[in-house]
Specification:
Blueprint lengths: L9 E4 L1 H14 L1 E8 L2 E7 L25 H4 L3 E10 L2 E6 L6 E6 L1 H14 L7 H8 L1 E6 L25 E6 L2 E6 L2 H6 L37 H5 L8 H5 L6 E9 L2 E8 L20 H20 L12 H5 L6 H9 L3
Length: 347
Amino acid sequence: MSKSVSDNKHWLISQTELESWLDQIANARTLIAPREVAGLTLYRPVEKSDEIAWNDKPRRSAPSGRPVLSIKEIFFPATERMFSIQKSGQDIALKESFPDWETVVFGVRPCDARGAKLLDALFLDTNPIDSFYARRRENTTLIGLACKSPGSTCFCTSMGGAPDDAYDMDIMLFEMGGAYLAKAVTEKGRFLIPGGDWKETTTDLPSANFEIQFPIPEKGKWPEHFNDDYWMRISERCLSCRACAYVCPTCRCFAVRDELVGPGEFERIRCWDACTGENYRRVAGGHKPRPEKGERLRNRFYCKFFYYPEQYGISNASACTGCGRCIDVCPAGVDITEVLVDLEKPA
């Protein structure tokens, strides 16, 4: 991963300069940004800045609120071909599908950058390194955009983040009355700053004190709640639809299968999976290790706040970024903040 820059330079740029810069990037690399697709805001490739989902097109201010899906799918696609196999007689040829294009993602929210950093603990920092993820991560630069305030379902401050947290970005932008204050966070980001085209400024970076929305249970408290009836009660709402996992920036379970493409040709596919699904980890003979919804829903929360931190050494952090997407998408009203508040209450 790119190292942090040692200087404290920052630049003040106009909306026009920002758009011109993004157009230059799009001409040389794959540019991904918030874009309207069938009424939804998603991180998608754009060919020019006009395609970005700005809040108010006539005024052309900052991009609209966080996209429905996170940047996870850029590094860890919902479905990807790992390699193909061609068989001709006794001859077998295998061809891997390594991504090799350079990508810049604009408008990244702090919760999404934090999600990518948490995925690094599994895919990059733990052997064996996932070469597909690693290649995409290395070839991608993140241009962040600070949120002015948390959204109605956001709770990033409870997870140790903040709407203006630049820590996991390569470049961070702060909107300031129609202009933008830009700061290079890493060497990779500094390389992307147009030399000589932007004027440095002494304007201070905006500072804000965002209060912690609510406390969450400490990691050591989770084991004592494992056998609580609470999990069966709250799972009565759950439909096992797995939508919460698919919109989550840090859910990383996947299944691998081989597909027949044509005569003598196969491909190995990796697809997202989710522990809330009824058939998750079903084994030969049909046995399901977690047959009850309550067991599966409990596992989802324990994975976020106990298992993942324990397994991948992220100390007191959790594998939740507080983006609130799971709250927005759940058709049955299972609210992660409700669960955290309930478990934090005195027994």
